[in-house]
């Protein structure tokens, strides 16, 4: 089964890479690609995929947290701390946004794209 799982992971990576080539601003594609790259132990490319997702929407606190976890795993603790602090800042903004009337959260493609006033 290990060979089968490796084959499935390789296929998943190919599909995610193809998806982001077709639609370069496909944030969820980069997030899924990053997760698959982590599973494949290609951590440098996973970092690049997370950073690309954040370049399209820097307020994705979950992505910042995942990137922080990845930095922590490779012992880049200052980078991890910076990601966690930014994730907390972005998550706090989301919570205050949801508590205020006249604000909404926009979802696109199953992922949070950000929030804007109505």
Outline the structure in words.
Helices cover 71% and strands 11% of the residues. The protein has helices at residues 2-22, 27-39, 43-56, 61-73, 77-99; strands spanning 103-108, 111-117. It has a two-stranded antiparallel ribbon with strand order 1-2. Helix 2 runs antiparallel to helix 3 (43-56). The termini are far apart. Residues 100-118 have low confidence and may be disordered.
Task: Please sum up the structure shown.
The protein is mainly α and 118 residues long. The chain has 5 helices and 2 strands, in the order H-H-H-H-H-E-E. It is globular, with a radius of gyration of 16 Å.
Question: Secondary structure elements and their pairing?
Answer:
Elements: H1 2-22, H2 27-39, H3 43-56, H4 61-73, H5 77-99, E1 103-108, E2 111-117
Antiparallel strand pairs: 1-2
Helix pairs in contact: 1-2, 2-3, 3-4, 4-5
Report the sheet-strand fraction: 5-15%
Level of helix content?
A: over 70%
Determine Rg (CA atoms, Å): 16 Å
What is the helix/strand order?
HHHHHEE
**Shape summary:** globular
- What integer is the average pLDDT? 81
Terminal-residue CA separation: 51 Å
Helix-strand category: mainly alpha
Strand order of the largest sheet: 1-2
What does the largest sheet look like?
A: 2 strands, antiparallel
Question: Which features would summarize this protein structure in a list?
Answer:
mainly alpha, globular, 118 residues, 2 strands, disordered C terminus
